[in-house]
Design a protein that fits this description.
By secondary structure, the protein is of the alpha+beta class. It has two domains: about 30 residues; about 110 residues, Ferric Hydroxamate Uptake Protein, Chain A, domain 1. The chain has two helices and ten strands, in the order αββββαββββββ. Strands 1, 2, 3, 4, 8, 9 and 10 form a seven-stranded mixed sheet that branches. It is elongated and about 110 Å long.
């Protein structure tokens, strides 16, 4: 009788282990999801700001290398260097010690040049007037012109 009970116990344990093992292997493995990683890029574009008959200079150190994602450098202060995908012109200008909105340019020296207040502020991207320039992602080879035309 002991042999019969031991045999039944081993049989039940064997069946239990079989089903336990089968249920573990039949469950699909879940891979952890990760949030999208920002893609690193090496984009170079150019920009010019003209107010009246003055082409603005960005040679002063206060404009250089203000962010690791997007910056201008001392060796070519008209070149925009973008290192992270999806950076917009607004992102660039937010790193600089000046302010630029669709209606107003406040220079690094604090001069306010606003649309309708003594002139018109215009944005051009690759020679095409682009009023929503600040929302555009910076692309390799872009040429940007921002003009304040006095009345």
């Amino acid at each position: 009788m002991k042999v019969f009970i031991i045999s039944v116990v081993f049989l039940v344990l064997g069946i239990g282990l079989f089903f336990l093992n089968k249920s573990q292997t039949s469950v699909p493995s879940i891979k952890p999801t990760s949030s999208p990683v920002s893609e690193n890029v090496d984009i170079k574009a150019n920009f010019t700001i003209i107010t009246g008959d003055i082409t603005r200079s960005f040679k002063a150190d206060k404009y250089h290398n203000q962010s690791s994602d997007v910056y201008i450098s001392k060796d070519d202060p008209t070149a925009i260097h973008v290192k992270k995908k999806g950076i917009t012109y607004d992102d660039l200008f937010k790193t600089l010690p000046m302010k630029l909105t669709k209606d107003c340019l406040i220079t690094g020296d604090g001069e306010a040049l606003c649309d309708g207040k003594g002139g018109t502020l215009k944005f051009y991207l690759n020679d095409v007037e682009t009023p929503d320039l600040l929302e555009k992602a910076i692309k390799d080879g872009d040429k940007t012109l921002i003009k304040f035309l006095p009345e």
